[in-house]
Amino acid sequence: MTVALPPTAHRPALRHRLAERGVDRTLLLVLPGALAVVALFCYPFLYGLQLSFQPTSGATQGGFSFGAYHAFFSEPFARKSIWQTFSLAVPASLINVGVSVPISYRMRRDFRGKRLLLALLVVPITLGTVLTAEGILEFYGPAGWFNHTLNLLGLASSPVQLTMNYTGVLLSLIISGFPFAYLLTHSYLSGIHPSLEKAASTLGADWWQRFRHITFPLLLPGLMTTFCLSFVMAFAVFPSAMMVGDPDGKTHVISIEAYEAALEHFDYAQGCADAMIMTVLMLVVIVAVTTLRSRLYSGSTGGKG
Amino acid sequence: MSVVLDRPATAAPGAESGARRRRIAIRPGAWLTWGALAFFFLNLLGVIGTVLLNSFGRSWFRSWLPGGWTTHWYSDAWTEFSLGQVLGTTVEVTFLVVLISLVLAVPASYALARRAFPGRKLLLGLFVLPILVPPIAYGIPLATVLYKFHLAGSVTGVVLANLVPSIPFVVFTMTPFIEQIDPRIEAAARMCGAGTRTVLTRILVPLLLPGMLAAGILVLVRTFGMFELTFLTSGPTSQTLIVTLFSAVNSAGIRSTQSIDAMAVIYTGTMAVLLLIALRFVNPTQLVARSSD
Amino acid sequence: MSTVTPMTTAESDTGAAVRPGSQLGELELRGISRAYGAHTALHPLDLTIRGGEFVALLGPSGCGKTTALNSLAGLLPLTAGEIVLDGRRIDTLPPEKRGFGMVFQNYALFPHLTVRANVAFGLKMRGVGKAETVRRVDAVLALVHLTEQAHKHPGQLSGGQQQRVAIARAIVMEPPLVLMDEPLSNLDAALRLEMRSEIRRIHQEFGLTTLYVTHDQEEALSLADRLVVLHEGRVSQIGTPADLYENPANTHVAAFMGYRNLLPLTVTGADARGATASGRGLTVRGAGSGAGKLTPGQSVMVAVRPEDLRIAETDEQALGEAVAEVVEYHGRVLHVEAVTREGDRLHLTSSGQVRPGDVLSVAVDTERALFFPQAAVPDPASQEVPA
After folding, report:
1. For a designed S-S bond to B50, which of A139, C39, C182, C341 qualifies (C-beta 3.0 to 4.6 A apart)?
2. C69, C71, C107, C125: which to substitute to probe chain A, counting the most A Cβ within 10 Å?
3. Which CATH class is domain A74-294?
4. Which residues form the ABC transmembrane type-1 domain (chain B) (predicted)?
5. Are the Cβ atoms of B1 and C291 closer than 8 angstroms?
6. Where exactly are the structural domains of chain C?
7. Region C259-378: CATH code
8. Helix (H, G, I), strand (E, B), or coil: what is residue C238?
């Protein structure tokens, strides 16, 4: 080793070295927001995580047990809520994304009234889950207009049961989720430069070949993101599952299970454990889709390469 | 000498456009997509229409339309659910959330947009999580913590809970907005002799105002409609409209559906007004877009 | 109407002509036009393009040249007129059935496909066999010097390379006609010069017929066999580069071709050999332009290039005097901007020393000053030469 020179002799000041890496006083601006998220999101989450590992008896403090998780997985009614959540969320997000693609592809060009149509699609988002649920109960109900129409058209002789069951929740997930998926798909699709399709058409590709070889591959990463976000929304389905579903039976989804544990039985440890299971399941799906997505082309979708 | 072809048009433009070949070929695909959209809107109209009609109907059984009209369900709902107080709380919560989330998140998004620093990805990840994780999943632990600190059930608790998704939402709305403002504008202002305070008040704030307005309105709409978090953390005196509505539906049987529908119409009407205002400032896709990664 | 003989064979010095003649006999545009509502973007245009020709559509932005190109490609439906390719009407066909190659302004390369897949795309769409596709793509990639980059994605290429991919993709189909929409406008100056000669070389080696849209007159003059100058949706002039350069049909074409000195004067005398015009303290003797007869008292626009306007010799009739204001050094000559007593600005060149503030006598050769008769009301939109 050579003679240790005083570090300040030929090294620039710490402030300069930090500034070189982009660290300066401007960064202090991040602090309030970041601290708020840490305090209001990370801390409660970790607190909940710790709480979920506490012994269920509640009397002993500071123990460690998988009791709450064990309770969840050993109780068939609770365990089944996972399957019920997936059987609602997966079809709902597949339908929403799947229907959005052809419709937004057809409407990718500008036409008169397009802005109005987009604005109309925002309406279901404004309705909120509660009004949607209320409307579904009355519109699709046994005495509602929908069954009236079916009867009138001779499609059904007796009223079809569409509410207070799986179908009701699926309908509510489509009514509030489709506009969301459509608007996202639409914005991804309009990010693909129109000259790419024009170029393909001058090269002899008909509309199906253009969609199959150019538009769809460029849209696919966006579709996967849309699917992820739709899935997250559908996965957390709560009010509509309570109102138009069958919360003690076929639509006893995991969020209801967690809610009932925490705020009806006041078993916070169990509620937090359920919330953790829910988060983990959702993250698994997101990570799976994201991994799949990263194997696709995902770069600029503009005209230039 | 070259021939000059600078001659007048052979026909008037009006006559020409009449002869335009417009292929209005409506293929089955077009029918299918338009049909699907029409079916969706028809159902939507039915859903809204039933609620709207029911709220004005005297009574409605197995017929197409209610028998007789009345507006008394609205006054019933107003007194029965003490909507005056509920609306007051809703406005209070919503505005506090908008204000606080803007104050906390705009500086953060400025730093995120302008600096590339070690740990920036980590910080972005921190902000993405509250948007990705379902409100119910973090709402339950959050409510537990709020109960521990005796904040649950108060307006403060509701505001704190609603800040969780709002702060990241403002960050992700504002960061791209700030990124598209050329940093050389700030440099130019400094070269013209403006100090930090002047740059802030004369240059940055006016430039950021449209973005802050858009972000603020979006947070307003989302907080107004946020059910899960408010439901988990509110008490009898700190309920917002949507929570009151849900509780009313869930304890149905005691109350007439008409007055519940009247309240739902009030809720939707308010939301629609907010959205009409929002749509003047932002593009419809922004209302749904979260973060794209 | 004078045209250059179309170049149907590759120049002998290139040696390795990939293919012989062009795929195209003759393409006829008969009065094609396009209107957007009440606005006519392109007035009826008649043009015949022969196989092997390089035709440039030239004009400022918004003159309708891109509209014309897109209509020809089939990307925009026509409002009126017909397009006939070797006796076959093609204006009702969709773009994918026309079989033209097109190079887009922003290249429009498919970002998710490699260079090879981009170039092969058209062949794949037409169901060309695998071996044949590989052979043709390899040949074209060699022609545009991109063999090494074949496996890359467009995002990994430089601007010039992307440009070459776009050209390769358009010509691999051996199309009867290649359409190019301002292909060089996204490149920097040095690369633009290089790609300009590349495009001309590819045009000749591959025996293409090319329609090239640009707003850059220098590009058009150096590339094209024939130029079509558009102004506000109408054709101002069609001719060879030399035609347009020496004999612009009107003041628009003149201004576009670098006649920077445009002086509104009045005719004072006219005879068989030429005419004299004066006004604003200047007197110019020049050649009339076109068949129009000049009569004394008529308003004319006198157009002179800066390189034809010079400092008068001692024994020569000067057209007027001006004070030098800005002097720029341009190699062997100086470019001088001088102001007359009436306040008109003159652009001239000088090989001798000139300093700002010098009073200069300015002269021009009679045959280098063009006279364009003006309508009574000087309306810039209707400055036309009576045919």
Report:
1. A139
2. C125
3. mainly alpha
4. 87-278
5. yes
6. 11-246, 259-378
7. 2.40.50.140
8. strand
Q: Which chains touch A (3 or more CB pairs under 8 A)?
A: B, C
Contact A305 C126 (CB under 8 A): no
Mean pLDDT in chain C? 82
- A199 and C104: CB-CB below 8 Å? yes
Q: What is the ipTM of this complex?
A: 0.79
Q: Are residues B132 and B268 in the same domain?
A: yes
Is residue B69 situated within a structural domain? Answer: no
Do the chains contact at C110 and A204, CB–CB below 8 Å? no
Residue ranges covered by each domain of chain A: 74-294
State the amino acid at position B103 in one-letter form. V
Which CATH superfamily hosts domain C11-246? P-loop containing nucleotide triphosphate hydrolases (3.40.50.300)
Chain length of chain A: 305
Q: What contacts C219, CB < 8 A, 6 or more positions away?
A: C56, C184, C192, C196
For residues A94 and A102, what is the distance between their CA atoms, to the nearest angstrom? 13
Count of H-run helices and E-run strands, chain C: 9, 20
pLDDT digits (tens, 9 = 90+) for C230-257: 888 888 899 999 888 888 888 888 888 8
Q: Which residues of C touch B5 (CB under 8 A)?
A: 46, 234-238
Joined together, the tokens standing for residue C106 give 């922003």
**Whether B54 and B85 share a structural domain:** no
Would B71 be classed as within a structural domain?
A: no
Nearest C-alpha in C relative to A196: C108
Domain assignment of residue B207, yes or no = yes
- Chain B neighbours, 3+ Cβ pairs < 8 A: A, C
Taking a contact as any Cβ pair under 8 Å apart, which residues of chain B between 81 and 140 contact chain C?
none
The domain of B48 spans: 22-59
Report pLDDT digits (tens) over C288-339.
Answer: 665 467 778 788 888 888 888 888 887 777 888 888 888 888 888 888 999 8
Q: How far apart are CA A128 and CA A135, in angstroms?
A: 11
For CA atoms C53, C32, C167, C253, the dihedral sign is positive
Q: Is A289 on the interface with C (CB under 8 A)?
A: no
* Domain match, B247 and B103 both: yes
Q: Which of C95, C59, C55, C61 is nearest to C76 (CA)?
A: C95
CA of C251 to nearest chain B CA: how many angstroms apart? 13
pLDDT in tens, C184-235: 888 888 888 888 888 898 898 888 899 999 988 888 989 999 999 988 888 8
Q: What is the pTM of this model?
A: 0.77
Phi, psi of C102 (to 5 degrees): -135, 135
Q: How many domains does chain B have?
A: 2
Q: Are residues B117 and B174 in the same domain?
A: yes
> Cα(first)–Cα(last) distance of chain C, in Å?
13
Tracing tokens 């601007």 back to the chain, one arrives at C159
